[in-house]
# Entry
Amino acid sequence: MLPIYKNVDSMKKAVTQIDEDFDKLASEAASCTVCPGMSGRSAVLSRLNGSLSASVLFIAEAPGRQGADRTRKPFYGDKSGENFERFLESVGLTRNEIFITNTVLCSPRSETGANRRPLASEIGNCRGFLRRMVALLNPGVVVTLGAVALDATRALEQHEIKLRSGVGMVHEWNRRLLVPLYHPSPQVIAATRDFKQQMGDFAAVGEAIRRIEREGVGRGCE
Ligand code: SF4
# Structure
């Protein structure tokens, strides 16, 4: 959802500013070496993450070994990505209409090279990038994928939403709408929230979009 501009010139200026701010942010992230445990990894943040005019921002946990860290495109190239795309399609969304980022921009790995959960220190170190990404996109809808991402939004602006009780519901948060969902990984689908349940939860994303279109929440509406 784009803001309402006074004229074409002011719209072009604003779009250019967003482009410039994003390039600066992505460049800073690309050269960031703050986390010792991310040595050898690099931030997944580029135009491949989605549209800078998106009104829906998805926040996941971290780039996966077989997915985003390998392909440089979030939720692409692994089973989590396949699941995610099917959920996205179910609410009529395409990747061109959304932006996807992560709580930590680099891929956390164990000593054996497997995916691991990001450390609290890594989440804290990367919080500035997440905060700037939310401010830059100013989306009407934020969708978190998993508890780590939901906790990360709480650190940006306090809320009391819990994943177990608040999943698949539309919440008001930080002058926008927040939809908490489970992560679409095969592990979560097998152990915690199955495919059919997650498909049902995703309907709340469509509901949130219809609501911002009706009520005008988010970018340009502050
Ligand atoms: S996870 Fe974030 S803070 Fe840590 S090194 Fe990567 S970009 Fe920097």
User: Anything to note?
Assistant: Residues 8-215 form a domain with the Uracil-DNA Glycosylase, subunit E fold (CATH 3.40.470.10).
